[in-house]
C-alpha cells in the first residue's frame, strides 16, 4: 500500500474544526512510571500542527487491556499529564470517551485546545468494533485523524469503525510510518535484505513467507536459526528449536532458492550449558555444538559473515535479535551487527528500517537507536505489515479517500 493513497494533514482545513485524533498512548508503564515515552514524543508533531492550525484536538486512545470495563489502574489520566508536559501546555483530561461528559468537554473547547478522553477499551464496543460506539465517537467531531499506526492492525471502533463515518486523514506519524514501510519493502533500493531473529519459526512463518517474495537476502538469527540448522541435519545439542518445524524450514529453503533469495544462516555459535549472565561459554562451529550445550548467540565468524553481506545491501529491514541479547554476553552479535548497520546508515550506504518490540529494545541496548534510518513505533502492527497483511486501520483511511474522490 503506497502512502500516497491517503489524505494527509496537508489537505485538512482544520481551523475552528473539531478533530478526533486517534493516538496510540499505550506506552509501557512500570510502578506507575512511563518507562518509554517514545509514542508520546512521536505524536507531538501532529497535535502541534493541528492546534496551530486552530483545530480543537480531541485525543482518543486505548491503554493496556482492560477488556471492556473501567479499570482504574488503566486510566489514561496519568498519560494525559505526561502528554501535557511533553507539549509544554495544559491538556484537559475527561474521564469518559463518549457521552455527555465528553460532549460537554468538547463544547467548552477553544480553537487550539487539546483534550484527552478516557481509555476507549473501557467500553466492550471498542474491541467489538461496535457501530454504535463508532457513532458516539463520530458525534464528537467534524474530522477524524488516525495517527496510531501501531494500533492499525486492530479493527476497533476508534481505529476502524469511526473512520467510515467521518472524513478521515492520516496524521504525521502515520504518514511517516507508511512512507518508511514503503521504502523498506514496497519500493526499496535493491539489493534489499532482512534480518529475522527471535525465538520461533512457527510465529514468524507468514512473515518469512512474505519476505521471500520481496527481499534478495534473508539473514536468519535467534533460536529460529537453530530450527533451520537442525532441519539440515546439524546437531544443535540442547538449543531451543522446533522439531516439528523441520519440514517447514526445508520448504522455506527450497522456496528461497526458487525465488533467488539468498538465505544466510549462522556458521558458528556461542554456547553455554545454562542461560545465565556471565556463565562460561564455548564458541564453536555450528557443526560442533556440544550435546549438553545451547546456542545462545551467533559467533564471531557469523558476525563477520553478516556484516559482509549487509555491506552489499542498499536497504535492510530488521526484526528480531540475533541472540539472547537480554543477558550478557549473548548480546554481542546483536550489538556488533547493529553497530555495523548504524555505520553504513550514517555513511549513506544503507537505508535501515527496524520494528517490533524486542528489536527496538535490542537496538537501544546497542546504543544505535539514533543511527537507524527509521525505527517503527509499532510492535504487532509492524509484524503484521511485514507479513503482508492488510491493516484494517489503514484500509479504513484508504476507503474514505476512495469515496471522497470525484467519479
Ligand atoms: C501495541 O502496543 O502493540 C498497540 O498499542 C496495540 O495494543 P494491543 O496489542 O493491546 O492491541
Ligand atoms: Mg501488542
Read across the widest sheet, the strand sequence of neighbours is 5-6-4-1-7-8
- Beta-strand portion reads 15-25%
Name the poorly predicted regions.
401-407
**Can you count the beta strands?**
17
Helix content: 25-40%
Number of helical stretches of at least 4 residues: 14
Rg of Cα set: 23 Å
Largest sheet: 6 strands, parallel
Average the pLDDT over all residues and give the rounded result: 94
Structural class: alpha/beta
EC number: 2.7.2.3
Family: Belongs to the phosphoglycerate kinase family.
GO molecular function, one term: kinase activity
Binding site for ATP: 204, 326, 356-359
Descriptive account of the structure:
The structure is a single chain. The protein is of the alpha/beta class and 407 residues long. Helices cover 37% and strands 16% of the residues. A 6-stranded parallel sheet has the order 5-6-4-1-7-8, sandwiched between helices. It has a 6-stranded parallel sheet with strand order 11-10-9-15-16-17, sandwiched between helices. The radius of gyration is 23 Å and the shape is elongated. The C terminus is likely disordered. The structure holds 3-phosphoglyceric acid and magnesium ion. 3-phosphoglyceric acid (3PG) binds next to loops. 3-phosphoglyceric acid binds next to loops. Monomer.
Q: How do the helices and strands line up, and which of them pair or pack?
A:
Elements: E1 18-22, E2 29-30, E3 33-34, H1 38-52, E4 56-60, H2 77-87, E5 92-94, H3 99-107, E6 114-117, H4 124-127, H5 131-138, E7 143-146, E8 168-170, H6 172-186, E9 192-196, H7 205-214, E10 217-220, H8 222-231, H9 246-259, E11 262-264, E12 268-272, E13 282-285, E14 294-298, H10 300-310, E15 315-319, H11 332-346, E16 351-354, H12 357-365, E17 374-375, H13 380-386, H14 392-404
Parallel strand pairs: 1-4, 1-7, 4-6, 5-6, 7-8, 9-10, 9-15, 10-11, 15-16, 16-17
Antiparallel strand pairs: 2-3, 12-13, 12-14
The structure holds 3-phosphoglyceric acid and magnesium ion.
3-phosphoglyceric acid is lined by residues 24, 26, 65, 150-151, 154, 379-380.
